[in-house]
Amino acid sequence: MPIQKISPGVTNAETAANSINQAIDLAEQNAAEKVDKAAGKGLSTNDYSTAEQAKLAAIAAGATANASDAQLRDRASHTGEQPVSSVTGLQAGLDAKLAKAGDTVTTVSEVTDSSASATLDWAVAMVFVRTITADTEFDFTNVPTVGSTKRELHLLGAGAWLMTWPASDFVWVGGEAPTLGTVDRVILNQYEGDSTVYAEHRSVTA
Fold it and tell me: What is the dihedral of CA 52, 58, 60, 66, to 10 degrees?
């Protein structure tokens, strides 16, 4: 129902009537400029855009909230699994290792070498024991380039024979091949990213 203005009656009521009419005019003007209220919504000065609404809707239920980048990168935060193939070089590094029982690797390759050559396969053993009965030329196979590995070579009776070592990817620490005796222990080291075998002569019995 439209608001009815009050018409002034007597002279002494004119001032009051004018004030009432002015108030009614202002109320009508404000009513014409109002925004209709939508059910379930309130007034706000923060405009909520469609893009922001879509972004919020895309967040999965239960997603991590308020975690810093450092926390998200921390390995302790990663509790899932990933395949070995997703880590570059991991499978090759594992293939170059030997299986162990308990806390000790006891794999030993023990051979009496009477031939002209002896191939030491790094995938077969941690310790190579060679009883030498002839001049022998040594070679290495399956030396990894991922990670650092160590092998030992025990020579029995090598001092009586000529030992020939690989011409490449093999270095005697100290620069020269040692003089061998009746019982010799040689430490063989290979380091990360390098297939060269570095040999150290540790003990000898003449």
Answer: -30
